[in-house]
Write a structure and sequence with these properties.
It comes from Halodurantibacterium flavum. This protein is α/β, with parallel strands linked by helices and 527 residues long. Helices cover 35% and strands 19% of the residues.
Amino acid sequence: MTGTAPQLVAGADFGTLSVRVTIMDSATGEVLATATAPYPLKRSAADPLLGQQAHADHMEALTLAMQEAIATAGIDGQAIAAFAADTTGSSVVMLDAGMQPLDDYYLWCDHRAHAEAAEITAAARDRGLEALDWCGGTYSHEWGYAKLLHFLRHNPGARDRLGTAMEHCDMVVATLCGITDPGDLPRSICAMGHKWMWSPRWGGLPPQDFLSSVDPLLGGINARLGGRFGTSDQVAGRISPEWAARLGLRAGIPMPFGGFDAHWDAVGAGIRPGEVVNVVGTSTCIIAAAAPDTAPVAGICGAVPGSVLPGAMGVEAGQSATGDIFEAIARRAGSDVAMLAAQIGDIGPGGTGLLRLVWDNGDRTVLVRPDLGGVTLGWDLAHTAADELHAAIEGMAMHVRLILGRMGGGAPFARIINAGGIPQKNPVLNRVYADVLGVPVHVPDRSPVGVGACIFAAVAAGHFADVAAAQARLCPPTRVYNPDPAARPAYDDLFALFEGLYHGFGSGRSLDLGAVLPRLRQFRLGH
């Protein structure tokens, strides 16, 4: 590509604690610069379920990160052809009629709306609401309607001033493009489908009479959640002169509909139809681009057409804690994860004799039970923290195997990609995942964070005809971890034991507990 004129795009990834701006050259696939800027996460000792952030803090951080990225790249920001942004979800802000926040965001990790979510779930089950099936059978306390109802119940003085509510990814687009007309507000199908029960199958949002039956406070709410619904390969608006000046960009450049960080990380990691990406970080988000005729699956937290790739069914699942569990093991041992991982050595399947159910922060998929706790079986006096870490990695991989079996209806996915921050630093995890899943595991050579945003920006700029063409140019290459065929029989046996314990402890299925510890001892002794 030597001598090719640059085709510059920028993308932002709003995480839990900071925003990261990435600038790429669409012509070469080169990352020219990245820059991050933090914002505070508001917690409360009086209410540990609260997690909030201010819209103004988000936009100030975006301004700083964009300006730094442009300076680091040594470019004229006026040359950037398009900009896109992904965010956490469901991070919801309530707005007045003038699009001004009535309060801070209910961040994705704000769990105050658990009672409201339970009421929505119970009412939907009583009614046989189809929308609940496509949520996996349970409406989460992390999702939009639950948080909106919690706000209305606990802020009576603001009820009459409520104009609308928006997901963070949509609020960023509306703000940067100066969109204030309620009928013109951008609504991401990724966000609204996975968190607000939107689908073209039933004409959009769930029936208003159902929502009103949950609580009269939701009466007429859908009329306030209107706008233009679109996928991320479609342009939602154009950067306003005001925000172009603040960010150092050219006014009028296109901005696509937003999306969620894990979904766009999957796109940036190179996901194709029939594939799945494990976005492995402090927790894990499992994103699949499944067949368009995929049916809803109990226990899987969302199936939405077009939420990941055009023409594919975007399916989301996950684990409530992954890296957090590894860090907790290391912290209790007075060590760190890298040091413990280096001590693991060449342990075979189940070779520690430990089996770990990784519920330290509850179960997000398949049981959807936040009230569960971690379990480690098989301890003896010689076990070390490195043994526990290995067992936790095996437990994670076996939980992923169980989830993927549910997501794919028993059929294997064509390719597994381990993205996120942990796989690039933990080869043990990738080897174990490949052996447990029995398929090659691909790991991007560099972080795909921000690449997905640049891909959608490049499509909006017209640099590529479609997402697949943009991925072919912009996604990082991958390193492949192939499964060891010799490990398969042992891991099949260990997985059967894991699955029995998972459902025994998690859902009360019958299990011969007297056989568990002796079998783990056989694994320990290599039998």
